[in-house]
Amino acid sequence: AITANVFSKEMDETKKGHFDSYLPKPYKARELLKLVGCVADEKKGESNSNALATKLDKLTFGDAKLAADLMEQFKTDCRSDLRNLQTALAKNNGEDILDLVHKLSGRLSFFEFDELAAGYKNIERSLEREASSEASPETIEPLNQELVNILNQI
User: Is-contact 85 27, C-beta < 8 A?
Assistant: First the structure.
């Protein structure tokens, strides 16, 4: 339960109402993410989770349900793009590869995963500059693996 009721009697009543956890307002986005198990222990993952928590808190004006929905949509979209990118790489479909690295770069940048976004953006620029339909899976795969690790941590 997310509530403004902070007295112990109110907390007990909330717990009797079959709620698993209790988070009094005002709360910080990090507290919410910790409560739902989205805070990573590793330094890099912790930094990424903090950035995402801050961004979600700003975007949703502290609406926990909306923040959770946005987080799930972010993960779903990234996973879908990763699957499609693997298919495009296997088929050597340069147009799809360019489109997918562009999408990933934009989405990751928006949610302040700046280093990873820059990696995808560099691949995008390279593909545009060379006007080549070929992208090296060896160049893209480490970024994809890093993104999978992040998605598993948040």
Answer: no
